[in-house]
Structures are given as C-alpha cells and as structure tokens.
Amino acid sequence: MREEQTAGSRPAEAPKRLGDILIEEGVLVREEVDKLLELQASQQDGERQPLGKLAVELGFLSERKLRDLLDLHGKRLSLGELLIARGLVSADQVEQALEIQGEEGGLLGEVLIERGWIEEVALTEVLAEQSDIPYVPLRHDDSWKLGLTALVNQSYALSHGLVPISQIGRVLTVAIWHPATLALQQEIEQSTGLRVRFVLDMRRAVLERIQDLYGLSDTDVARVMAEQKNGPGMEAKAHGTQAVRYTDLGLSREEADVLGSIHDGGEGVFVVCGVTQDQVEDVYLRLLRFGKASGGLDSARKVGSLTGLGETKDPRAAESLFRDIRTGELRLAIVSAANTTLAFSRLITLGVHPERLAKELLGAVAVCSVRQNCEGCVTPYQPHKLVLAEWFGARPAPTRANWRRGTGCDLCGGTGYRGAKLVSEFWTPTESEREWMRMEGAGGAMRQFREDFLHRVTGIGFKGLQMAVDGKTTLEEVLKVLPPQEVRSVRQAA
C-alpha cells in the first residue's frame, strides 16, 4: 500500500529561481548566470528585464527553450495573476470570472471581455507577455498572400485559429490568437519543412486574416468563433476539458486513446525514449505541457499530480523515479534507449528491481523522426537490390509497394524531402508481460521477448517501413534513421 503524504509531513520546498533551473538543466553555467544577474541589476527599475528574456536577447537560449523550461518547472504566472499584477482587473473580478468559467466553460480572458472588465487589446498584450511571443497587430494588404495557402490548408487554419503571414527564407511566421496553439509548433514545422515563428494578435484580427487569405464568408468566420469558445481546436464542453491529439505523436488512434487514458488517470511511471535525443525531449515536453498548461490546454488531471523528472541517467535517478509514488501521481521520465523494450532493459541495468518495474511501469513510447517525400517533385523509383535485401532478406518485396522519392525542386531546396513525420512505438505491459518482467528481468531472454512482443505491438521498424511502402518516404531514408536492430526485426519477420 502506498502512503498518502500528509500536510506537514515534510517542509515545503522553496521555489527554484530561474537561474538555478538554467544551471540544473545544463543550459548555462554558473559564471554565465552571474553575468546575466549582474547585467539585470545594472538596469533601471522601470526597464529591468526578466532574467529569461535577457538570456534570450543575448543569445544564451532560444525563446522556445525558455518557454519549455518555464512550463516544465511551473515558473509561468497564470493569466489571472498577470492581469491582477498589471492592475488591469481586480482579484474579485478574476475570482468571479473563474466561477463563471467553471459553470459555463470557455476561456478566462473571454469571460473578462464579455463582462466588460478588460479590453481585448489589453488582454492580448498580457497573453503575449505570458507566452513570451510578440504581439503584432496584423495589416490587411495583398503583398503577403503569395504561396501561403500551399503551406497551411484552410481547414487546419480554421480549426486551430492560426494563419501564415509571411515566409522569409526558411522561416514561416504564423499569427495565432491563443497560446494553446504554441503546442503545434513541431507539427507545423514537420509538415512545411520550415522553422516556425509565432506572433499573437486578437482573435477577430486572426480570423479576418484567415477569411481574407482563403476567401471565406462572414458566416464561416462567425461559425468558427462560436465553435472556438474554449480555444482553438477545443470542444466547447461544460468544464472546458481537452482531448489531447496524441495521434500527432505518430500513434494510431487506438494507441492514442490508451495513452490519453494513462495521461488523464494513470498512477505510476511512464517513460519516453527513442532514436534522436531532440525528438525524445520534444515529445517529453509536449506531454508535460498537455498536463501542466493552466491557461491553454486543459486536462482532467489536476496540476501537480503529473510530475516530470527529466532524463534518468544513473542508478540514483532511477531509484528516485520509482520511489514513494503518491496515490494518483503519474511520473514522466526520459530513458536513453532506441525502443520501448530496451527502455525496460535500461531501467533494470540502472538497478531498478524487476518486481518494482512490473508493479509501477505503466508503459513507454519510443519515437523516431522520418523525413517525408516532397510532393512537389516526387516520382516512382525502384530501390537498389541491396537496400531491399536489408529489409526483406531473400524474400521478395511487397508487390503492392508504392516506391517513390523526390528528385529535388525549389519547394524542398533540392533535397527531395519536405517536412518530417514521427513514427512511434507504444507499449503498455500486459499481465503476462508483467509476470515475465518479474521472473526474467533483462536477462538472456530479452531478445526472445522482443520477438514475441512484436507479434502484439507494431514496432518503429514496421511503422517506418510502412511509410516507405505507402510512398511517403524512401526505403533508404528509413534505413538511415532507424537502429539496425529495428531493420533486423523486420527482416526476420518478413
């Protein structure tokens, strides 16, 4: 039985300062933080910048990295707190607005506007400050339209409340009206093959820009505004809950539903692993944001019961990951492993007892990013016989395969690829697998377990191969990015 931690059983920890977090996360060293603090102290009171913004301006980290760290460590003030601190509304007005929001749904800012307690421009300026993105009032002219509709389609723009406003080189600037849309950055970058920069403006201005770009009617815009009561891409429910789109992580609909149920009500440990460290960290942070965002994506899980513990690198961190899990607590961690079963093996190697793993490990997701063919120059081709042999051995390739590759064009910068897609392997242990974990651990039976496991779970090797068979990428690209053992698993099963 787990014991509930009672109030007063341990002293409350003092909140960490951003400078300490930057050092702890390996973003800066102590000398660099000291220099930033010294520079901050030298600024006049009315012009003194927050440490994070100062670090971004001086090039120590990106705006996106700062935003992720603020979310991860709970350093971002809520919208209500910011509005009160700026003297734009009173504490009583925020309290009343929260009560109305709880009864009727919707967004806090929209409730405040409807009651006449704040102007939309003032609210937008504070949302921009809270999200660390610039507030840019949109202009209305025709010079920005060329080619933008090919990058983001109409239905996506409408459903998510965003609109592309310019492309300069490899940077696409996208206007949004709600900070929840920031969670789509990786998805847009993968689909367009461009680096995305967000700016914020009022909802009406963004929707009018969408109307202008795609030639929509006033009726279309009015309908979208009514549907987006709770925010872009969100259903208008009584309590404003949000079903997170886990399919964006490369999961099937069935896998996404299971991961959603773990996220909303799981108790134990869930790990993220994969081929590329940047992709693993990005998925890890996205899962944390889904649970912790208080002014954007909502969740049935209360803030605080989802704990992010970062990468589990050593035995001490591994032991801490599984120690004293409170009732209702879900812990999220990164494990350095190429697939989900290797993540389990890695935890055993770090000293976690098999019995504890069998009891507390809820599951794992492994991710890999695969470049997609550029649709502007894609053409049929026949992979080399040596590449086919790597995947299928002496057996023939699937006769239904639609082998395609890009030849290179202006859209893809001559690479033949445009954007990328995540492929993911998702594992939640069955009762028989938990029993195997107790009995066998990570001994010599691991390889056999992996082979048996792949009869039930679609591994990242099989998902990557399916992309190539469907003509979405090349067989060579998947061979290059996947670990050799994944290609071997496919070859042995062929």
From TrEMBL:
> What's one Pfam family here?
MshEN
Domain Type II secretion system protein GspE N-terminal: start-end pairs: 132-218
Q: Name one GO cellular component term.
A: plasma membrane
Instruction: Output the InterPro entries linked to this UniProt entry.
Output: P-loop_NTPase, T2SS/T4SS_dom, T2SS_E_N_sf, T2SS_GspE_N
Q: Which GO terms describe its molecular function?
A: ATP binding; ATP hydrolysis activity
What keyword terms does UniProt attach to this protein? Answer: ATP-binding, Nucleotide-binding
Query: Domain named Bacterial type II secretion system protein E: which ranges?
Result: 309-479
- Similarity comment: Belongs to the GSP E family.
Q: Which PANTHER family match?
A: COMG OPERON PROTEIN 1 (PTHR30258:SF2), TYPE II SECRETION SYSTEM PROTEIN GSPE-RELATED (PTHR30258)
What this protein is called in its record is Type II secretion system protein GspE N-terminal domain-containing protein
Organism annotation: Eiseniibacteriota bacterium
